[in-house]
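SAMPLE LOG
Freezer: B-3
Tube label: C17
Construct: single chain, 430 aa
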Amino acid sequence: MNTYVHVWRSYFFYLLQNFGKMSVSGHFNFYLQIQPIRRCCVRNIRGVTFALVMSVALSLLFLEGKPRADKINFDDHERGRGDSFLIYRPFSTTKKVDRAVRHVAFLKVHKTGSSTAQNIFLRFGWNHNLTFVLPPAKNPFGYPNIISLREGPTSSNVLPPPAGKHHEILCNHVIYNRTSFRTYLPKNTFYVGILREPYECFKSTLNYFRPGYIFLKIKSPAPGSDYLTDPLKYEPESAISSITNNRMAVEFGCSENLVKSKNRDQIMKFIKQTEQDFGLVIITEMFEESILLLKRYLNWSIKDALYLNKNIAHRKNVSALVGPYDRELYKQWATIDYALYDHFYKRLRQQIRKEGNDFDEELLHFAEIRRITSEFCSVSGKYKDDKLAVKESKWDEKFELAHTDCLLLQKQEMHFVKEIRVRQYGSEDI
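STRUCTURE (predicted):
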């Protein structure tokens, strides 16, 4: 009897290690091929019958429990009610990208690092030959990469897709409108936004745009500081025409009435709706973490998620914000932007915590791959035939970076959009 127990125990552990590799008949054949089991069959037919039944049951149980792809819903508190975003990915980390999400809307918000993020989406769409939502080359804003700075997508500011195709990805400047976005993009589109610490965004806006209603109207050594003492004195009548009046919230679709009233209950309602619509909001101050989370949510490869910094300001601290209370004054002015930023900063931290300790490990790996990519691409033009071989990791398959990959990583937004327009419609003038 001790021999039988020993053999059964050995078989049980073998079964645990090989449950996914054997059929039911395979388990029976395995019994017949082992000499001690044959003796047990002769001596203890009842015990063998029990063992065989157990093996079949365990095999079916384990086969049913094999890792499989499924959908993950955030709880009601996190996602809000109504339509929720879905994150499709395997329970175990996958190294394949055949389940990669290909319908994506990226809300490109001014002066938030959005050009750096946009290159990721442009590159992914280019490499997978996706159809972009594009404006006419000639539009009221004078730039072929701007859909609109005043409204959402409409039939007048968006080109129809090429014959036989449908829009799959949007990542050019436009005001978010829940209804119009869903008119032009598939139902299963994943929505991504971006936010930056509001005062830092404000300073960058002044440095880059130098709005006339501030720098032309205010004749003083510190026009930015003077503006903050009484913003309404200088602001345009319409919030949609302003680049400094809670502009991030405006680009996320905040109504003009709410910008004026700043009603607390309505602000929270606006934020809740935004949370429901956007599966991820990138936080500029946590950019690398945000992009890694994006990679996981969309089931993209690490090569898809690589990026090089774009549009880094060379002239800083020229916005004439020198007052000791400027930051606090701006907080009082940009109340909706701050409420939006604070909410999604906390939400991003919560989303990362749900990923577990493995996220930190992959983040270190991602940072290292980005460093060697940056070094390789900085000299790839001199050695155009060279390739950077990146080894397989527990998160991704091995891959290579060539000079052509570096060109896409380094490509500026305007040139990239023009090339996409030519490939999609046959001309950069359409």
